Amino acid sequence: MSIDKETARKVAHLARIAVAEEDLEPLAGELSAILGFMDELNEVDIDGVEPMTSVTPMALYRRPDEVTDGDIQDKVLANAPDTREGFFAVPKVVE
To answer: What does the pLDDT look like over 43-79, one tens digit per residue?
Structure first.
């Protein structure tokens, strides 16, 4: 896919980037090169390849999902400037 100067101008406007008129043509070329590279990546056969979360294989530490800090509501609310019925009270911001 080839990007023309007008499309580059529109992309720059949508991205809220100020691009000088003389820089639109090189920008269009760079965007076209990026889209060409993406087309190349779409041709790669990825059947049977698992998605990666990191470039180095590692297992993440998983702790048991247990409640350990229960019944500390009073401690949590102790430094709050305003509380009501056991919750933080905040100013109303929507009418």
So the answer is: 999 899 888 877 887 777 888 888 776 788 889 999 9
Nearest to 21 by CA among 32, 5, 4, 7: 5
How many domains, in total, are found in the chain? Answer: 1
Q: What pTM, to 2 d.p., does this model score?
A: 0.51
Distances (CA, A) of 31 to 9, 27, 40: 11, 6, 14
The domain containing residue 38 runs over which residues?
A: 5-42
Which tokens hold the place of 64? Answer: 């048991």
